Amino acid sequence: MDNLDLPPKVLQALQKLEITTSITSVLEMSVPELVKTTKLSEHEVEMLKKAVSERVYTRPRFVTAYDFYLIRCKLSLGCPILDEYLSGGIRPEGITEIYGESACGKTQVCLQLCLMVQLPLKLGGLEGGAVYICTEDKFPAKRLEQMKPQFKQQYREFLRDTNVGDNIFVKHVVDVKGLIDILDNKLPVLMKRTKVKLLVIDSITALFRVEYSMDEMYERAQVLNRIGARLVQLSHKNNMPVVCVNQVAAVFDRPVRDTKCKIHDYVKPCLGKTWSSWVTVRIMLLRSTGQHLAERQLPKGESDNPERELVVIFSRTGDHSPLDKAMKACRYTVDASGVHGILVKDTDDKCCICGHD
């Protein structure tokens, strides 16, 4: 605050503000709000916001060709079929949202990304660790232990004696203030000590489910904007994928379900348009319908491992076409070793080339 190039009157007014976390709170307040709170003129408030923005956001700099290459590198899901459908994997810049109903594999995908990020660039990794922020249940440590043996066996030449669990940093939060504290303070400190190349929040919805009432939607939108802006800033500054798990809500203003309607016509991601405006890529996971399973005539023994589907709803980067009737989903299954895409050619189904037929 002392480093801001501002008149003493403006600095004094700024010090009187109840800013408990960071100076960036000024940017989240509108000009009329600041005028009313600080008793400054509109011109002085504009001067204040400009000084804070120049302090917080660094100016663009030249990048090397190798830096540009790193920016274009995507994080692989560990499955060639899923990677091909996602045009290479998860983007290193921006927020990727994964949403869907219960038991469709959202956490499984996140765990697989936490393992894959530790691999070299040539294998689809980003040569770094992962931060996994839990907001609902405990971290699925047992599930991760199930996935580790197959993963280490598949990449034993590159991992050697590496304990992949040591590169996954877990934190549990129970409220919005805790999440903001991690993003603003604790995470930057961790990133100075170790190379973090993936941030997972599972889930972003839980923190807003009961904390805000219907009369507090304006405050809720402000907090969502603050968190979204901070996540985008962390992603772009560190060339780091940010994956947020979201839940679904039922859509009641639809006609009675018929065969022409799809599942995404009846459920929608939570948190509304305020949160959606910060999402770069939105991915929906869903369990395959009985009709799809009947058409494929699954062999005996596969009924306990039901198929699921992954659909890109939108991508603001142009990597994927908007969701329409012609767009097909990518089918996948989940087993003890992780998530595996299914290549469907006529009646022949072939799993991805990671040792699963």
TrEMBL record:
CDD domains: XRCC3. The keyword Nucleus applies. The keyword DNA repair applies. It is found in: Nucleus. One of its GO terms (molecular function) is four-way junction DNA binding. InterPro entries: AAA+_ATPase (IPR003593), DNA_recomb/repair_RecA-like (IPR016467), HHH_XRCC3_RAD51B (IPR058766), P-loop_NTPase (IPR027417), Rad51_C (IPR013632), RecA_ATP-bd (IPR020588), XRCC3-like_C (IPR047348). GO terms for cellular component: Rad51C-XRCC3 complex; replication fork. Pfam families: HHH_XRCC3_RpoA, Rad51. Keywords: ATP-binding, DNA damage, DNA recombination, DNA repair, DNA-binding, Nucleotide-binding, Nucleus. Coiled coil: none annotated. One of its GO terms (biological process) is t-circle formation. Its main location: nucleus. Belongs to the RecA family. RAD51 subfamily. This is DNA repair XRCC3.
